[in-house]
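User: Show me a protein chain along with its predicted structure.
Assistant: Here is one chain, sequence first, then structure tokens.
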Amino acid sequence: MSSVDSIRSDPSAHELKRRTSQGAILSIAAQGAAFALRLGSMLLLARLLFPRDFGLVGMVTAFTGFLGLFRDAGLAAATVQRATITERQMSTLFWINVAVGMMLAALCVATAPFVVWFYGEPRLFWITVVIGIGFVFNGAAAQPRAILQRAMRFQALAVIDTVSLVASCAMGIAVAMAGGGYWAIVVMAVSLPIVSGAGAALASHWRPGPPERGTGVRSMLWYGGTVSLNGIVVYVAYNADKVLLGRFWGAEILGLYGRAYQLINIPTDNLQYAFGLFAFPALARVQGDSGDLRNYFLRIYALLLALCIPITAVCMVFAEDLVLVLLGPNWSEAASIFRLLAPTIFVFALINPLAWLMLAAGHVVRSLRVALMIAPVVIAGCALGVVGGPQGVAAGLSAAMLVLVVAVIM
């Protein structure tokens, strides 16, 4: 029996509960460490670099981030969600992921001149090219990570994520201290998937065979394609603010907004990543039992909300203090943006977990419909606010998300 086939798709209720509880503890602990690392690196880089450095990279990542939605073509999620999967299917999906990663890297090279033209900034060419390297490693790591998640090996995933983040932060800070400017952020972004991918390959103890036809992966490709399309719609919506600010207000203003946006999202992004890491495979294992599916989801959902509500309140009340302590006095203008973005913490905590439920149950089309409802409202809110600069865009984004809460949950 292969290493993939040996993964049980129907663990007992007791075993599933044990693995889920263990996954919750390990994932939250790992993301707590990740939060401290990201916050610490942000604190140091904010004092070593200038807003323009962050703005330059932010201009590029608004485009390369879109390409990043295809880095695993949704096939990692398909692997985890699948009730049963064979070695041949896994190997075929691995080579598809590698091919996609190489295509994305090539697209970064091809689109670099367009990015330079769009923003009128020559330095963006090589930033775009170098960031594209990470796609190759993301593609190669997709299936090994999916194996670990499917097997609910959360301890291995926690170690991989923590070590890769430590390594990337250390390299980025070293480049910044050496006077590398914006290249520090680029190095940090590229080194993360390289180290993470190597760790996943070693921990999974799995080596792919050759790709084959007739392995029955068509339904998985459809599932993955729909997941990717969902991600595209959501990405366009949630990055319209940065594209608009970069285009009409320049790198300096985008740098301020980007720091405030990243700072406000670090705690909830880490929490939601940690919860999703164990929630999705756990929900997928009970997808055939609507009662268990509902009960598992509601317990996870309630815990996430209980953590995010106080975070939202603290960010709104102590915006100036948080920005001063974490970013320094040079970033004081970001405090008002930070406060205006605070409501999005609670809104994301309300609506994002619903995607785990829909995807685990195989309702990918329904999830896509929700995304198509969200996108135009968010883009309109950001577009209406762009005349007010970063504060206007922040207010527009928060207002749009608050409007969407009731519609999405219903």
